[in-house]
Amino acid sequence: MNAIPSATSRADVLSTLLQRLVIRFATTHACEGILFGSSTTKLAEVVLSETAKGRGFAIPWLISDGPTPFGISFYYPLRELLKKELSAFANMTDPMIAPLVHAEPLAKEQVISSMKNTTIDFLMKQYFESVEESYPSIVANAVRTAGKLQAPKAASTQRCKLCAMPVTEDLVGIHGWVGDQIEAVATEIEKGSYGLCYGCTRSVPEEAVTFLPD
Ligand SMILES: [Zn+2]
Fold this sequence. Notes:
The protein has a domain at about 30-150. It has seven helices and three strands, in the order αβααββαααα. The chain has helices at about 5-30, 40-50, 60-65, 85-90, 120-135, 135-145, 200-205, and strands at about 35, 65, 75. Strands 1-3-2 form a three-stranded mixed sheet. Helix 2 packs across helix 5 and helix 2 packs across helix 6 (about 135-145). The radius of gyration is 18 Å and the shape is globular. It starts with 6 loop residues before the first helix and ends in an 11-residue tail after the last helix. The model has no long low-confidence stretch (mean pLDDT about 85). Zinc ion binds near residues 162, 163, 165, 196 and 197.
């Protein structure tokens, strides 16, 4: 983790590894699916932050109910509820379930020591927390629109070494990003020599590739 240069990349690698751990736990215990507690607000954050981090191709698998390339289905039973609705509900039940909820300060109330320590995930969280207050339909729209995206059709046996998403040749390294990048000056990791997708190429420095789990 120390070799990872930015706060955004560290947060990205940590959440990716956490997701892989959850999947590994579920598959080794022969679970049929994984229920995630993500609200509409959380899913909207995922849509925009994964896009910004260069992993847009994986969005259909990260926010939709049903089969995933990991051999286990994902379900989001709270997908129609906003974060503020869930917080309100937790305080209305009798007995109250709020004390059982892991208290996390609102992103807008957190003081960040410097912009350098701000992550894309955090910015998205802050953004959608403020949007859901006055314009909840925007939050729901982001998720609904992204929900219409279709997963890449071509089945690939190659997996990205970090996020474990199936990647075809054109999704590996800088080929996964159709912008203006020059192959001649690309590092080995950017050329796709390590089999990382474009987003993960941006998060993991070359010297840390050997530490990635199988
Ligand atoms: Zn990846």
